[in-house]
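Ticket closed. Logging final result for RecBCD enzyme subunit RecD.
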Amino acid sequence: MTAATPTPTPIQAPRVASAPLAIHEPFEAHDARLAARATGTPAVLNAAGVLEATDVHVATRLAAVGGEDDQAVVLAVALAVRALRRGSVCVDPVATAAEVAAELSAALEPDQDAAGSEPEPAARAAVRAASAVTWPEASAWRAALAASPLVAQGALRLEGDDLYLDRYHRLETQVADDLLARGAAPAPEVDETVLEASLVGVRGGRFSPEQEAAAVQAVRSWTTVLTGGPGTGKTTTVARTLVLLAAQAAAAPERHGRPLSVALAAPTGKAATRLEEAVAAELDALGPDAADGLGPLAGVTLHRLLGWRADNQTRFRHDRGNRLGHEVVVVDESSMVDLTLMARLLEAVRPTSRLLLVGDPRQLTSVGAGAVLADVVRGLSVDAGSDAGSEASTSPVAALSTNFRSTEHIKAVAEALRAGDADEVVAQLRATSAEVELVEVEDDEDPSDLLRPSLVAHARELRELAAAGEHAQALRLLDRQRLLCAHRDGPAGVRTWNRRVETWLAEEVGPLAVGRGLPGWYAGRPLLVASNDYALDVYNGETGVAVLRPEDGRLRAWISGSDGARELAPGRLQDIETMHAMTVHKAQGSQAESVTLLLPPAGSRLLTRELFYTALTRAQRHVRVIGSEAAVRAAVATQAQRATGLAARLRAGTR
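Final structure:
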């Protein structure tokens, strides 16, 4: 299992519900009431905010269905659901109990309160009660789980100390089995003479030997995992790989000139658009004939590629019984792909189609459970097994390290972050340049005065373009700068900053509303799609602007997606958010010329090296970091941990 004991952080205030999990029906209000009837340790931990109502309800419901009345097992199931909410695939209940006890102890320390003030007496009393809980004895707890009817029935899976819900155990096993099967299959036939001749045409320019080696590996393999940080030429390598593969296809007489069928996909529409544009630009740079032999190269979201089904939101039209027809499938920003979606992708790709997973494993992991790209890299890299020499020719992982971008200062900060060198990160941030700026504020200091001028100026310009009906210019302006936050809520959260910017903008230009029937909408409102809407073909993470239509003055939403900008009536968009600020997680797969990262206090559970690195690498030209030195150091020192078994399964399968 991939896991580690994190630095204890304060328990947050109790919440009623989290996003629905795919292991039970959608969460409803009555679930909270049912969870409130729970007794014993789960109820105490729910009151303290350690467990949410979802965790308790799913555990008690599963126990009731399976005939389990041992409260130690019920508690373990609740911890497993909690782990899924936090991105882990499995949980070691005994280790988690120790972590929770440490967090509860830290929460009772006055100077550990992340909000900078004493918690409410009732909340503090709930935390104190939870800290006094007697956890099950370790060996007895593990024995109870091993003897549980839920394990016997298959609802739970126990592997060593790790407890899985059956669904996620099956998904993880499937992903490992599919990847290992692809690696064990006979390699594709390659005409080496054609390969050498086509390599001549793609050499030159910014195409390093390691990129060429990665491209050749992709030609000779069914599966390639192409990794590297920003500016290392991943897209350049993808484009040249496609040229090499097209040459192989053109040389096959049985194809009769049929072009190579390629799918370009990414988890979000924004990332898919960037992939399509970047590949097209690379092919154009190679010459007018570079794309000969290639079919259409349109970037699409993974959900659109796999084919969403209205009757089943966890399944797609393309699966083992109805494989994708593409001969090459390229998936960019693969670090954003969770375990469930990766399983669906692998079952849809034909065993005899090439699969290129492209991404940076040091970025934030997926919102959903799993750390698939990082696990695949750990599990299948050359040094993942005991005999590195024997794996060197079969590992699908190709890592790029040479940085071609001119943003040397941003690159230096990113390298220090990757190395975990807090002193160097602080030094690089303080060495202010045209690329990097550190604005040091204490954790309890409000940076509003620092941010207001640039945020309002951007919002005003966006509003002016939108009022003039200039949707294309407004969409381009939207990508000029980003304010990124770790949290959605709280003083340093996205919702707070969105409200502030709207208040400031209204103070300068007057009321923002456009009229009755569209509360919260106004010309120049920056938009963020918060969930997939397959009927409208808009997807989570896509961005846009509300623009007045010149011919009739009606407000329209212009959304940038994988197939270009689309005009929609605001009333048709069911889950849309204002985007003067956005979370770092939502920013994955996109970039902006200038990025401002608002670091949360040093005690925030979300403050990790991966979050800092992801935010930093969204910037194309300039990054401004606002926060305390303590917050910077806490981020560098804290690596995100997700409990999974995928890397171990892959390592075991390659030995």
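DSSP finds 26 helices and 20 strands in the chain. No further action required.
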